[in-house]
Amino acid sequence: MTEIPPSHPRYRSLMTREGLVKGMKKGIVAEAGLIAHGRGEAFDYLIGERTLPGALIAEQVAAQTLKNARHPVISVNGNTAVLAPKEIIELAGLTGARIEVNLFHRTEERVGRIVSILKKAGAKEVLGEVPDARIPGLAHERGKCSSKGIWSADIILIPLEDGDRAQALKKMGRFVISIDLNPLSRTSRAADISIVDEVSRALKNMIEFLKSGKEPGIKDFDNRLYLGRIVDHIAQGLMGLYAKEESTGNPEESKE
Ligand code: PTJ
Q1: Is 70 helix (H, G, I), strand (E, B) or coil?
Q2: Domain boundaries, the chain
Q3: 179 - beta bridge partners?
Q4: 0.90 surpassed by pTM
Q5: What is the whole-number distance in angstroms between the Cα of residue 213 and the centre of ligand 1?
Q6: What does the pLDDT look like over 177-224, one tens digit per residue?
Q7: Chain centroid to CA 2: how far?
Q8: Is the CB of 78 inside a 6 Å radius of any atom of ligand 1?
Q9: Class of domain 1-248
């Protein structure tokens, strides 16, 4: 593994990358998971690598919605298992959600490895090893799911999900909460609550909110409005950057 000096200005980000590469070599993260992470990083950069106020509201509403659900389920894939295993377990505990390992690039070996990571991190029950139902409209391995989990859920939390599967879950009539740094993705556009934030930040905020016992900051959550605000934030940030460049004539000054 590459040695990363803690003094590097992007130390945390580089360590996260290393964790994913290690996870890929151990057969936990899909190879495509590294590409997905790069895409996420690019959007996080545009957002400012922090939770935007609108995303925090979406996280609060999502946390409350999961807690109030009849049968909430958290779907876990390779990236999420490496990035936030403890947070997944804590959120499941606070909301009564079941955890299901549900993979896009499904292999039984990888499901098994992710289940053991989650169990090692403290999960009592993890579904997904014995799929006995199918998400309609999704061919082959990526349609497999558990009848005790996603199949019978009313509300599903899907961090870093493929757009096709997010749409298939919607077509199944499920209430879908996504976590995806890309506000333009099909997943973000298909979901009922679209959290545009980095997965570990989002889960930590949801946990903190539930522990606080507070009510969400707003009553009527309009997902399209909140998604629009995030896109606006990105657009305004970029316009501001160029305006600064024009006034100083020095692009270096406007970095970060
Ligand atoms: O482990 P598997 O087989 O289930 O595969 C998982 C991946 C992520 C490879 C699979 O679901 C996939 O291909 O996803 P996509 O279609 O690449 O979408 C992933 C989305 O997650 C993209 O829109 C990224 O911007 C976003 N993303 C990446 N990293 C993060 C993220 N969102 C939040 N937090 C991140 N850390």
Answers
A1: coil
A2: 1-248
A3: 159, 195
A4: yes
A5: 31
A6: 999 999 999 999 999 999 999 999 999 999 999 999 998 878 899 999
A7: 27
A8: yes
A9: alpha beta
